[in-house]
Design a protein that fits this description.
By secondary structure, the chain is α/β, with parallel strands linked by helices. The protein is built from 15 helices and twelve strands. The protein has a single domain (3-55, 63-87, 121-381), classed as Alpha-Beta Barrel (TIM Barrel), CATH 3.20.20.210. 41% of the residues lie in helices and 11% in strands. The strands form three sheets. A seven-stranded parallel beta sheet has the order 3-7-8-9-10-11-12. It has a three-stranded antiparallel beta sheet with strand order 4-5-6, with no helix packed on it. It has a two-stranded antiparallel ribbon with strand order 1-2. The protein is globular.
Length: 386
């Protein structure tokens, strides 16, 4: 069975030969550059200097084909190009300002938003603010040819999408603290900002899918709807302001591609699963198991597993950085046993693998997924302690 066949069956809630594996190529299933360097050393692979970073904020490394093949990764990604109309400058410490005017300061392993371009704008100023051109041709140059080549010459399942969508992106532009306060105090201003961001996303996504929509299996979106303890905002606010906009964006995606729509949302997400179904989401990532509501994968599978597909549910903030390889292997088997029966489960390391994860645990993570994820799934449960 090819990786493409494997993923298609999984997303159609059928059992293929094994659980598909995704790793190391986008904004949600990547690996920090420090962890990646340590992994290459552990695998006795030559380090091709410099290690390339494709996400300056999260410092995610470009994972080369040797590593993808070593871990039997079933997916490959078609990411949009940088905007050639904008010259990206990176300071010596890694801090940078992006094409939107968001300034991110290097803080340890990552970069944090410390200046937002719309922080002091009035409603009228937000309505007039000049966004970057979503139709800039350099963003999409060569994508169709790349997609055709990968689709016809490789067996991999192709994926695409963007890092942020409506909430997260808008909050970056306004500043998170101010944005969250204005959800309660000035919803009209927030609505104007959201409409402008949606308009940009619709146009950007439309051009993107015009190039690759025929070739991809999954279209990614990203927004973080949970804290560790519950929803990041009043669910009524989400349902009033955001849910109708998601419906419009996802309807457009599905009009231009047969791809399944996957949303990345960190934190507590059980509360929002039905809402995501309502707007056309097909797949949810990463089901963070240490967040309230996500602790029981058996419950999640029982309640939503015949309608949604799931990624991961691996404890990548506790077991993955802190445990031993045997503990990582047990965690993987538990999640496969709970979420993989009947299809509808894709394996990954949760959200991006962070800098403090030992390389031996990364090896245990993916090797166990390959071994325990074979259908029928008896092998996934045999070694789980009572």
């Amino acid at each position: 069975m090819t990786p493409r066949d494997r993923l298609r069956m999984t997303l159609n809630h059928q059992e293929p030969d094994r659980v598909p594996i995704d790793f190391g190529q986008d904004f949600h299933n990547g690996i920090n550059e420090v962890a990646y360097r340590n992994l290459l050393i552990h695998l006795h692979m030559d380090i091709r200097e410099p290690i390339l970073v494709y996400d300056l904020m999260q410092r995610l490394a470009v994972v080369d084909e040797r590593v993808l093949e070593r871990f039997r990764v079933d997916t490959r990604y078609l990411m949009a190009n940088p905007n050639e109309d904008w010259e990206q400058r990176v300071e010596a410490d890694g801090s940078f300002e992006d094409e939107w005017g968001v300034y991110r300061k290097r803080c340890g392993y990552y970069c944090e938003n410390v200046r937002s371009p719309l922080a002091d704008e009035t409603l009228e100023g937000i309505a007039r603010f000049r966004f970057p051109d979503p139709s800039e041709k350099s963003r999409f140059r060569g994508l169709r040819e790349r997609a055709q080549r990968l689709y016809t010459t490789t067996p991999y399942a192709l994926m695409a999408g963007q890092a942020a969508s409506l909430y997260y992106f808008s909050a970056e532009l306004r500043g998170f603290e101010r944005f969250m306060g204005e959800l309660a105090t000035d919803p009209r201003l927030i609505s104007v900002l959201l409409d402008r961001v949606l308009e940009w996303m619709m146009e950007f996504t439309s051009h993107y899918l015009d190039e690759i929509g025929d070739y991809i299996e999954v279209w990614w979106m990203g927004d973080d709807w949970g804290m560790q303890t519950g929803p990041i905002m009043n669910p009524k606010t989400f349902r009033t302001l955001f849910k109708p906009l998601y419906r419009r964006l996802i309807d457009m995606v599905k009009s231009k591609s047969k791809a399944k729509v996957c949303i990345h949302t960190c934190g507590a997400t059980y509360w929002i699963l039905q809402d995501l179904l309502d707007v056309g989401v097909d797949v949810v990532h990463p089901l963070q198991p240490t967040a309230v509501g996500n602790e029981d994968p058996v419950r999640i599978k029982k309640d939503f597993g015949n309608r949604l597909s799931f990624y991961s549910n691996v404890a990548n903030t506790t077991v993955l950085p802190e445990g031993q390889p045997a503990e990582v292997a047990t965690e993987v088997r538990r999640k496969i046993a709970a979420l993989a029966p009947g299809g509808g489960y894709i394996f990954s390391g949760g959200h991006n693998i962070q800098a403090d994860v030992p390389p031996a645990n990364i090896v245990a993570l993916f090797d166990t997924a390959y071994e325990a994820g074979r259908y029928p799934l008896a092998a996934a449960t045999e070694k789980i302690p009572a």
